[in-house]
Amino acid sequence: MPKYSYTALDMTNKKVNGEVDARDDEDLRRILRTGGLSVTKYSAIEDRRNLYRLKTKEVGEFSRQIASMLSSGITVVRAMEILKDRDFSPKLLRVYEKLHKDVQMGYTLAEAMQLQSRSFPELFINMYASGEASGQLEMVATKMAEHYDKDFRINAKAKSAMTYPIVLLVTTVAVIMIIFTAILPSFFELFEDVDLPVITDIMIGISQFMQDYWFIVIIALLIFILVWQTLLLNTKVKYQYDRIKLKLPVAGKLFRTIYTARFARTLSSLYSSGIPMIRALEITGTILNSKFLEAQFPELITDVRNGEPLSAAIAKVEGLDRKLAATVMIGEESGRLDSMLESTAEGFDYEAEIAIEKLVQLLQPVMIVILALIILPVILSVMLAMMEIYNNPHAWG
Question: Per-residue pLDDT tens for 334-357?
Answer without folding.
Answer: 888 878 888 888 888 888 778 777
